[in-house]
Write a structure and sequence with these properties.
The protein contains 13 helices and 49 strands. By secondary structure, the protein is of the alpha+beta class. It binds ligand MIG. The site of ligand MIG has 10 residues, from loops.
Length: 798
């Protein structure tokens, strides 16, 4: 037994030793002096390093450190959306040991020697987060050999004390469970088809995480786009550290204590998700690839004939002429405009894929057909080049290709304007793929290390720009669509990303497998993305790679039908997976869920608008709503939509019953309206046609009659389902706007607040008030009381 233990220990230490050991780094020097300006406190250290605190809001402080030099004047980030903060009240106090900065909410204590930073609650002085060791850098190149790109710069790291009970959430798109404690993660955007749990990195980089301890939350956004590392207590039970292969120590500290408040601040800092068009919440269908145009029409015909709701069809890469972006294959799609019009009559929108790879096609190469995108980009010098001046020529779908340097403002504008080819044909949205950027020559990025980007005149290399490439491509696309169709909300979908992506694009989690294991990752991944500032998420329903079956497809829809992005998609050589492919039995169940999605549209849209406005996502882990209930901290096989709807999907084969955790309060079984007391686990039947769903008592949920596409029945009544709590009270909100234009940003929306209360034998419903200037036209509001047979309902308008 003893021998076995020892060998296990050896194995563990071997694992740890192979990771970056930040204890070998050189700590920043002790504080020598400091200086206060309007919203900054700048420390000078004995080794001539500098540390700067910027007080942005009572609950938001930025920390920058420059090793052995002054804080650089140049201060730019592609992620940041807001830099005009109104400086809050703050004070400085010094003692021989420390300098303390305090806002109304946070206290930042900077211990002088060694220099250690500590964050406390300004009112209770309770410790929230503290440095485990001073911030450090690799002065002697001790980690250079460990670095992916030894030329990237010098390793920087920040190390925090790991709390015994501390949980970690967020960090964007990781193929991992909800609580990231004891995890070690790398950020380096990578094309990873068929990834399974534990694969890391995958497509996106969102270097933002939440820590939660004793119910109190903080957030850290490490705004550094170099290859970065997050260790939440994997290499030591003493520390949680983060670091990067270059760039600055530059992080933002958010104090809650509520996670919702942190997400709101994070959205203020990195941008609020704009509302996509309402039809983006509609059901979507894709495969690699539908062509020619008659096949697209056939898919739509099937959907309509089978009475299955559908709003969007996606065209994958084969719509193009030899994978040349901004072209249509003349045989397959001779008249895209006519196709769009035809589909439009059936309520269907068309979305096309656009990859970053532009076919490398010089005019001199004797090509019969000229490719204007390559020619224009070359002439304007918008393509990426290596440090020796050569064009960078990766291989992607068109063969030898080039990538645009999206850090150039003129190149972004040009790329955005090229989308006229799509908008002129009535294409409704753009799906940006392969933007890690993927390169068949070498997927790790090694082939791209000497690619130089303009980067605001800094001429930086791939080490800094890889992780922001997709963000800037999405930005170019979004801004292009905004210019081309100013009266319509852009709809962009992306695979890769950096923090701030929510300003420009929605996302899907890439090339999943058609397996139960991959389905089980949906909930932790969607909820983690929601905790990372990306509310509009989804995955290929049924899974992308391999062969699904009826049961897997149904269970997959029972998660996906409530995800903001609900799209069934399939790899080129995979077995077809449209809802009807496995027979009527499964198709009928799928129809039931798609119809339910459309019934819930007013509820989903109201909740999506909340995500836009407050940064609090639609698709939530339970801990977001029940932050002080430790039963939720590790719960990642259930989710909630907004505050009111709790769903416990089945993500295993042959399972028809499961345990469901209901937080404190009363819950209505969505299907039977039977009431349950919460604060406990219950065992629930879940035959294939039923996903366990519960509604929080006290909720009012707006619905519409089923429809087969979003705009099908504009004048339909809205039915508000009322689920009174034990006191006979309920309340809810309905958000409406035109669903298409950006006018909502100027107050053209209508937010209706409703309450219901029991009075005698009946219920009184009150419209408490409305906000906004949008007029939804004539539409009736009905109220239906749930949980009791035929109690009369009275509507009172005030
Ligand atoms: O190398 O465009 O994730 O959705 O069908 C594969 C073809 C490229 C990857 C995307 C997938 C898409 C596929 N693409």
């Amino acid at each position: 037994m003893k021998i076995l233990l020892i060998s296990v220990c050896c194995f563990l230490s071997a694992v740890v030793a192979s990771a970056q050991d930040i204890t070998v780094l050189e700590p920043i020097g002790a504080v020598e002096s400091f200086q206060r300006t309007e919203n900054k406190l700048t420390f000078r250290c004995r080794d001539n390093s500098h540390v700067q605190l910027t007080i942005l809001a009572p609950d938001l402080v930025r920390v920058r450190a420059a090793f052995r030099k002054a804080i650089p004047a140049k201060d730019h980030s592609w992620a940041i959306a807001k830099d005009d903060w109104t400086t809050p009240r703050w004070t400085v106090n010094e003692s021989t040991e420390a300098v303390t900065v305090a806002t109304d909410e946070i206290e930042v204590i900077v211990r002088r020697s060694p220099l250690l930073i500590e964050f406390r609650d300004a009112r209770t002085h309770q410790l929230i987060n503290a440095d485990e060791r001073p911030m450090a850098h690799d002065a002697q190149g001790k980690l250079t050999a460990m670095m992916f790109d030894p030329k990237a710069g010098s390793f920087v790291a920040v190390s925090k004390k790991l709390g015994f009970d501390e949980r970690f959430y967020g960090l964007g798109e990781k193929a991992a469970r909800l609580d990231k404690r004891r995890g070690f993660f790398v950020n380096w955007n990578s094309d990873t088809p068929g990834y399974t749990e534990g694969k890391d990195p995958i497509y996106q980089t969102i270097p933002f995480y939440l820590g939660l301890q004793r119910g109190v939350a903080y957030g850290i956004f490490f705004d550094n786009s170099y290859r970065s590392y997050f260790d939440f207590g994997r290499s030591s039970n003493q520390r949680a550290w983060f670091g990067a292969e270059g760039g600055e120590v530059n992080y933002y500290f958010f104090y809650g204590p509520s996670i919702k408040k942190i997400l709101g601040r994070y959205a203020d800092l990195t941008g609020h998700m704009p509302l996509p068009p309402l039809w983006a919440l509609g059901n979507q269908q894709s495969r690699w690839s539908y062509y020619p145009d008659t096949m697209v029409e056939e898919v739509v015909r099937q959907y309509r004939e089978r009475d299955l709701p559908l709003d969007v069809i996606h065209l994958d890469i084969d719509y193009m002429r030899g994978y040349r972006v901004f072209t249509f294959d003349q045989q397959r799609f001779p008249n895209p405009k006519a196709l769009v019009d035809k589909l439009g009559q059936r309520g269907i929108k068309l979305v096309t894929i656009v990859d970053p790879g532009v076919k490398h096609e010089p005019r001199a190469s004797g090509n019969a057909e000229r490719y204007f995108v390559f020619e224009q980009g070359l002439e304007k010098n918008y393509f990426q080049r290596r440090s020796n001046g050569d064009l960078f020529v990766p291989r992607v779908w068109p063969g030898e290709s080039v990538f645009v340097d999206y850090t150039l403002p003129e190149a972004r504008r040009w790329w955005g304007d090229l989308h006229r080819i799509y908008t002129d044909n009535g294409i409704a949205g753009i799906w940006t793929d392969m933007n890690e950027p993927s390169d068949f020559v070498d997927q790790t990025g090694k082939n791209q290390l000497d690619v130089v980007s303009y980067d605001e005149g800094e001429k930086t290399t791939h080490a800094k720009n890889r992780n922001t490439f997709a963000l800037l491509m999405a930005r170019a696309t979004y801004e292009g669509l905004e210019r081309l169709r100013p009266d319509q909300r852009p709809y962009v979908i992306t695979r890769a990303a950096y923090a701030g992506i929510q300003r420009y694009a929605t996302m899907w989690i890439g090339d999943t497998n058609s397996t139960w294991e991959a389905l089980a990752l949906n909930v932790p991944m969607f909820t983690s993305l929601g905790l990372s500032g990306e509310p509009f998420v989804g995955s290929d329903v049924g899974g992308f790679i391999g062969r699904a079956n009826g049961e897997l497809l149904v269970r997959s829809y029972q998660v996906g039908f409530l995800a903001p992005f609900c799209r069934n998609h399939k790899v080129i050589d995979g077995y077809d997976q449209e809802p009807w492919r496995f027979g009527k039995y499964y198709e009928d169940i799928i129809r039931k869920y798609l119809k339910l999605r459309y019934e819930l549209l007013p509820f989903l849209y109201t909740t999506l608008e909340e995500a836009h406005r407050t940064g609090v996502p639609l698709f939530r882990p339970l801990l977001l709503n029940y932050q002080t209930d430790a039963n939720t901290y590790n719960l990642d096989d259930q989710f909630m939509i907004g505050e009111d709807l709790l769903v416990a999907p089945i993500v295993k084969p042959d399972v028809t019953r499961r345990l469901v955790y209901l937080p404190a309060g009363t819950w209505y079984d969505y299907w039977t309206n039977k009431k349950h007391m919460g604060g406990t686990m219950i065992s629930v039947e879940a035959p294939l046609e039923t996903v366990p769903m519960f509604v929080r008592a006290g909720a009012m949920i707006p619905t519409v009659p089923p429809r087969n596409y979003v705009g099908e029945k504009p004048g339909d009544p809205i039915t508000v389902n009322v689920y009174p709590d034990d006191k006979g009270l309920a309340s809810g909100t309905l958000y409406e706007d035109d669903g298409k234009s950006p006018a909502y940003k100027r107050g053209m929306f209508l937010r209706t607040r409703m309450t219901a209360r029991r009075e005698g034998n009946g219920f009184i419903v009150t419209i408490e008030g409305t906000e906004g200037e949008y007029s939804p036209g004539m539409r009736a509001l009905n109220f239906v009381l749930k949980g009791r047979g035929s109690t009369p309902v009275r509507l009172r308008k005030t």
